[in-house]
Amino acid sequence: MGLLERSDAYWKFTGQCTQCGHCTQACSSLTAADMTLGDIAQALLEAERNSASSDELAANIAQNGQLVQAVRGCFFCTSCKNTCFAHNDVCDLIYNARVDFRKLGLIPRETYTSVLVDEQWDIFTAYRAIHGIGYADLTRHVDTDVAPADTDFDVAFFPGCSLAAYGPELTREIFAAVEELGGKTTMLDSCCGSSLRSAGFFDRAEALCDKNSRELADSKAKQLVCVCPGCANDMKRALARTGVDVEVVSLAAFLNAHGFKPKKPLPETPLCISKSCQDRDGTYLEDTCEALGIDAEVPTIFHGCCGAGGAVSAFDPDRQAQQADEKLSFAPDGSTVVTMCPTCTYTYAYRMMSNPRNIVNKHYAELLFESQFDWNLVFYQLNSMWYGEYGAWLAQVFA
Ligand code: SF4
Ligand code: SF4
């Protein structure tokens, strides 16, 4: 193996890229770097050729500010891929580049220690432990203090990290609806590992999804209901990889299929849907509009990343804020922005704490169910846990 672990991916990408430049025009990060995706692959290979050791390679890459910008400034939004006639896979390229960056020490450890979601403690599990949020009674397919493991489930519900941590009442209300509509249900209280990928731990992210697949196989659930399109995509890939025959559906599609009726009327304000960048072909968007009972042609739809993707905030916090502002700037005064991924909801809420707007920020599940996120409480609790009795422990765990 050469100095770059993932050089095969860069050679492959270089061979497929015609340097047409369309991807650069589609992306503010690539524009800032003045690079195409193919340039990234070539620059990495050139740095390897000019280096005699890993230390020298790390120094050569670190000196190339354009390359660092292009690799670490990527949201994985795939806007560029949509412009590439060759359909070159940006995620494959940048995930591999992140692996090499991390191995070369070019992604500082302190930027990812709190999001290693395959370890015992990450920011979500710490938040839940400190604030008494748990689901031992719902994770019925695993042995817990509450009950021994059960099996023969019809459905497994996968709320994802953000919803399970920051919306416990909403999580439980959705779980109850899924069980009422779909039969015997358990909760997969895990993560899809996207933060691991962003930090350059691609194999660990896949291993986490594969572990989720095995849990699903043991539960005998026939369907997996995911709230976030990103979780759904990752679990589809993992189930295919591990040969586990479980159908993955979005929460919206599941509710539609079972004739779910929203628990309350929609707000009368204009609805602006914030399309998840994980929703490549718009299927999840269609399902979401149907669940809300709105014509997909009617609401304003925002494309692109909310700012949370790719852990860009760990590299350039201002760019995450700019991206959130850019997306929200399309929402007219008095409108309701409707997100499809709970992490987008979190990201907009966080941004609007410091840059308030006259808009309402809701995940679509909040419009269908009674329970709501309480972002003021969440941000207060997130902030306060670093002080007082748990502060020293957190600092040590995430050192
Ligand atoms: S995935 Fe998005 S942020 Fe990354 S290079 Fe493509 S357009 Fe730019
Ligand atoms: S759009 Fe595709 S072919 Fe064109 S420069 Fe970008 S990656 Fe290469």
Polypeptide structure, described:
The protein is of the alpha/beta class and 399 residues long. The protein has 3 domains: 101 residues, Fumarate Reductase Iron-sulfur Protein, Chain B, domain 2 (Orthogonal Bundle); 141 residues, 3-Layer(aba) Sandwich (Rossmann fold); 112 residues, no CATH class. The chain is built from 20 helices and 8 strands. The strands form 2 sheets. The protein has a 4-stranded parallel beta sheet, sandwiched between helices. The chain has a 4-stranded parallel beta sheet with strand order 6-5-7-8. The two termini are 31 Å apart.
Strand order of the largest sheet: 2-1-3-4
Using the CA coordinates, give the radius of gyration.
Answer: 21 Å
Helical segment tally?
20
Could you name the CATH homologous superfamily of the largest domain?
Answer: AF0625-like
CATH topology of the largest domain: Rossmann fold
Please write the string of helix (H) and strand (E) elements.
Answer: HHHHHHHHEHHEHHEHEHEHEHEHEHHH
Mean pLDDT, to the nearest integer, reads 95
User: Oligomeric state of the chains?
Assistant: single chain
Beta-strand content:
5-15%
* Ligands: iron/sulfur cluster
Level of helix content? 40-55%
